[in-house]
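User: Second chain of the day. Same drill as before.
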Amino acid sequence: MIRVSIVGASGYAGGELLRLLLDHPQVEVGQVTSERQAGKFVHSLHPNLRGRTKLKFVPSAGLDPADVICLALPHGHAQTRIEEFAAQAARIVDLSADFRLRDLDLYEKTYGSPHQAPEWNERFVYGLPELNRKQLAGATHVSGVGCNATASNLALLPLVKAGLLDAERAPIVDLKVGSSEGGNKASLASHHPERSHVVRSFAPVGHRHAAEVVQGLGLAEVHLSVTSIELVRGVLATAHCWLKEPAEDKELWKVFRGAYRDEPFVRLVKDKKGVYRYPEPKLLWGTNFADVGWAVEGRRLVSICAIDNLMKGAAGTALQCLNLMQGWDESLGLSFPGLHPI
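Assistant: Same format as last time:
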């Protein structure tokens, strides 16, 4: 058993990670922090955990040593306090964007300010197992992943690995996302029309997660367009690509199967019959799966990936990385298959 604490557990990602860790056979949850909610029971913000835990939020100043600390703070906070957190745990998993980008110039361009802990940045491994499994095994510091970047990366990865993309035409990824991407205020707004101005997940151009896709796949350029729809959880990435040469489904089945045959959380969904012939985010609620499908017409290919943004796009992948860091089966604590009907 290892002791794991969560800093910033009042948000959706922190709460989701707590839900997972409470049922993990190798983990004892130590502390969960929140500055504003200190002293309150966890279930006051995460009602699904009522009766499951009697933990209360504590202020981060009262954080005790742990084997692993998971940081679920808003962007910009982890890098300013990383020395403090590192003094309390030898291993850190940061769910924010603070340590995702290796290139500090790209970081400054993407986030609008210089990195506050450049000497720590190089210690973090980008936490998407499908890209960095070998580096994650035994790592001590792991960064989180952007949910839109994860869906985009997994849609495009097989095509990049096979060298099929036309280098002269950058992929365009259209992302339809749930309100929980914007945090609890945005999610509340989706249920209360008078608060609709709070919803922030709309970026027709220039989305920050594009930098993670460029870094992860080694692309010269990729264009992301993000729009909130009437959905709480979920991301559906539709990647429009152009191939070097015309391709047929038979060839592409080999490409996608070759890329994902041994991946425990990536499933190929491309059926000729049935209701759900292509990936559908609703079927993935609460799961760590990414469903991937595609359609092709000559040189034009559309690759589709669906995930739960709070799971494969945040807490689920964080736990998958934690398992790899510890040398455990990476699917430990992540076996929930989803619900149907939904």
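The chain has two domains: 2-123, 147-307.

User: Great, on to the next one.
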